Amino acid sequence: MSFKSLLAAAALALALPAVAQTPAAPPAAAPMTTDTDPFLWLEDVTGERALAWVRGRNAITEAALMARPGFAEREKAIREVLDSRDQIPAIRRIGSHVYNLWRDAANPRGLWRRTTLEEYRKPQPAWETVLDLDALGKAEGENWVWGGATCHGPAYRRCLLQLSRGGADATVVREFDLVAKRFVPASEGGFTVPEAKTSVTWADGDGLWIGTDFGPGSLTTSGYPRVVKRWRRGTPLADAKTAFEGRVDDVYAFVSVDRTPGFERTVFFRAPDFYSSEMVLLQGERLVPLPKPLDANLRFWREHVLMDLRSDWQHGAQRFVRGSLLVADAQAYLAGRATWTALFTPSATRSLEDTTTTRSRIVLNILDNVANRLEEWAQPARPGAAWTRRAVQAPHPGTLSVAPLHDPLQKDDPLAEDYLLTSADFLQPDTLWLGRTGSDVRDRLKSRPSFFNAEGMRVEQRFATSKDGTRVPYFVVWPKGATAHGRNPTLLYGYGGFEVPMTPWYSGGIGRAWTTQGGVFVLANIRGGGEFGPAWHQAAILGHKQKSYDDFAAVAEALIRDKVTSPAHLGIEGGSNGGLLVGAVMLQRPELFGAVVCQVPLLDMRRYHKLLAGASWMAEYGDPDKPEHWAFISQYSPYQNVKPTQKLPPVLFVTSTRDDRVHPGHARKMAARMIEQGHRVWYWENIEGGHGGAADNAQRARMQAIEYAFLWKTLADR
User: Fold this and answer.
1) Among 234, 260, 285, 595, which has the highest number of CB atoms less than 10 A from its own CB?
2) 70 Cβ partners below 8 Å, 6+ apart?
3) pLDDT by residue (tens digit) across 43-55?
4) What is the dihedral of CA 285, 289, 294, 300, to 10 degrees?
5) Is 576 labeled as catalytic in the residue annotation?
6) pLDDT value of residue 16
7) Residue 696 binned pLDDT confidence (cut-offs 50, 70, 90)
8) How confident is the model at residue 28 (pLDDT cuts 50, 70, 90)?
């Protein structure tokens, strides 16, 4: 399992004549304890008093924003995009079929359905429904949301389905028969796991490897499984045998199973923090440690082993820099005599975003100044020969994503060298291609329709200079006819955390609700993200987190300096870690902004590690219980730093009751504190939705329409 894949959703203090300089950092805020926090009761997620407060604030926000002219039309336009039957059905191969979860107006929770790849090529493929989530929820009296499927090959008759109540991370696991299209009851030996943050995979056709809530002591302080057990069919879950254990203060423990014939491997992991792992290989009854740098990501691929480096590494006489991708012979590695080959080495502008393997090749997805390029590496044709590289001709510039089609359990797989390639940018809708290694000829499978008229619009990539001199890229999407006159309503979006890159994407919602209405959209590629690899991320973590906020403020200053917009017309938006970003920058540089949309945010950084999954992020932010860490966290923690004497822009907080990753108490408490202090605050909390904020398209359209109503009200009505 790649730690990059778990990260499973985002500029320079310039001297401006019209804008005040960044104020000196305030003294460290006094720690707020449970005795001094007057809004601690809002952390009671489903408490009667807390929910009464939520309903009251929702009513105020809805009355103010949903009654605005054009709200219904905007919500309808966004909903039409989300429900469009012309969307590209995202597919995943399972055996001889490709599967898709399809949502539209008639199926808000979704149809899990399948067809063949050949049928999928057709403009209107014939789909076979496997499971109707809406019908299931109605029959069982549950608000089920799809959580994924893990299927046992090569027969692919049995799957483990994960179903979430209201979109939470916690799921119920139930065994499903793909042929009979029904759940396998316990009376027939079917596997069922109660609601928890469960990690589960097949050991064989009658056994599972499972990490879940087994009772006291079985979870980490982050709320994830600490123990992995082997569970046999027909036996109680309580009788499952412990195979591997992590530590209580780890993030989690899990298992990865490779059943490729001739290369079968079972590997257990414990993650001491978000970016580190220790691995052991199951050999018979023994657990054999796998040597690697603690923060490197290692995985087997047939007769090879691949490793991504997050730190510089010296291996004997070999030296490799962080951000490199290495390959070695698996047998030599296990024998302790590996010779590593670097297939990718980063540069100042190039980083490795992802890798995908086929039967014989590795496809590298590389970011080059925040635009994707592809490379293929073919394994040596004979022992002692070199790996060979080929640049893949693919759409550029823009965003590319690659997904595998190869089924390693099939000996003579006809799709062994095929992969799916998706291309998109801000103005060009997604196109899905069927590619094959060794060739630049690819089949165009599907294209997403244009949901807005992009004629006359343009996109620029610009660079700001951050407080310490770092060049920070950002994209500006200009509406038709817009000029730099300083009055354009502008929405600046950022994330800046967890090594997640923010690359261009096509959004019918942004197009319909913002850019075609005259708004400028800006995407900032600030430090903390993964746009330029591990170094770009590590430059803004722990005691250096402030650099993310400096970068974001620098982009805002550049937009104002260049008269793209002005403070009264500049809004900012971010979610999760991005919610922390906009919350912090709102307080540090309020004179730069006219509106703030803060989505599913972290805000109380004194208590974040005690709320839900918060303890898993201490490698990013630090441990506030350590005085030396609180010394820097306290400088930006929004909940502790907001003051009644500040003149702040209007802010809209958006969160979800069912978010069991980032606690809704962050947004609730910040909103209540700011309201008490007399600031201009709107608050809206969806009762369902999980960390994504919405459980279906109707909820998502309502949420986005409220956000845009707020932005147009605050940035254009001036």
Assistant:
1) 595
2) 712
3) 999 999 999 999 9
4) -80
5) yes
6) 26
7) confident
8) very low
- In the annotation, is 629 catalytic? no
Over residues 430-485, the pLDDT tens digits come to: 999 999 999 999 999 999 999 999 999 999 999 999 999 999 999 999 999 999 99
The mean pLDDT value for 155-161 works out to 97
CB atoms inside a 10 Å sphere around CB 114:
20
State the first-to-last Cα distance of the chain, in angstroms, to the nearest integer: 51
Q: Which two tokens stand for residue 15?
A: 């001297």
Instruction: Single out the residue of 367, 378, 371, 361 nearest to residue 419, CA to CA.
Output: 361
Whether the pLDDT of residue 12 is over 50: the answer is no
pLDDT at 289: 97
Read off the pLDDT of each residue in 592-596 and give the average, rounded to a whole number. 98
* 334/321 Cα distance (integer angstroms): 23
Write down the pLDDT at residue 690: 65
Residue 695: pLDDT above 80? Answer: no
Q: What is the pTM of this model?
A: 0.92
3-state secondary structure of 34: coil
Question: Which tokens belong to 400?
Answer: 């590319």
Within 8 A by CB and 6+ apart from 256, the residues are 1, 201, 266, 267, 269, 299
Q: What angle do CA 327, 329, 333 make, to 5 degrees?
A: 95
> Which one, of 157, 161, 235, 243, lies nearest residue 200 by Cα?
161
Superfamily in which the 57-79+452-715 domain is placed by CATH: Alpha/Beta hydrolase fold, catalytic domain (3.40.50.1820)
- What DSSP string runs through 695-706? SSHHHHHHHHHH
Eight-class DSSP state of 125: -
Please give the helix or strand (H or E) that residue 556 lies within, else none: helix 546-561
Task: Tell me the CB-side half-sphere exposure of residue 462, using CA atoms within 13 A.
Answer: 22
For 640-676, write each residue's pLDDT tens digit: 999 999 999 999 999 999 888 999 999 999 999 999 9
Could you tell me which residues are beta bridge partners of residue 591? none
**Cβ atoms of residues 697 and 79 within 8 Å:** yes
Under the banding of pLDDT at 50, 70 and 90, the label for residue 384 is confident
Helix-helix angle 665-677:577-588, to 10 degrees: 20
d(CA 282, CA 230): 13
Active-site choice (566, 576, 616, 656): 576
Contacts of 124 by beta carbon, 8 Å cutoff, 6+ apart: none
Q: How far is it, in rounded angstroms, from Cα 628 to Cα 352?
A: 33
> Pairing state of beta strands 192-196 and 171-177?
antiparallel
Q: What is the radius of gyration, based on Cα positions, of the chain?
A: 25
Helix 48-65, helix 665-677: angle, nearest 10? 70
Closest listed residue to residue 707, CA positions, set 632, 652, 630, 637: 652
Cβ contacts of 301 within 8 Å, gap of 6 or more = 357, 362
Nearby residues of 160 by Cβ (< 8 Å), 6 or more positions away: 149, 150, 151, 173, 174, 175, 176, 191, 200, 201, 202, 208
The pLDDT mean for the chain works out to 93
| Of the candidates 24, 9, 32, the residue with the CA atom closest to the CA atom of residue 546 | 24
Q: Where are the domains of the chain?
A: 57-79+452-715, 347-409+417-449
Residues 6 or more apart whose CB falls under 8 angstroms from that of 565 comprise 486, 487, 488, 489, 490, 520, 559
Q: What phi, psi does 150 have (nearest 5°)?
A: -120, 115
For every residue of 135-179, DSSP letters joined together read HHHHHHT--EEEEEEEE-TTTT-EEEEEEEETT-S-EEEEEEETT
The pLDDT of residue 717 = 64
How far apart are alpha carbons 265 and 300 in whole angstroms? 8
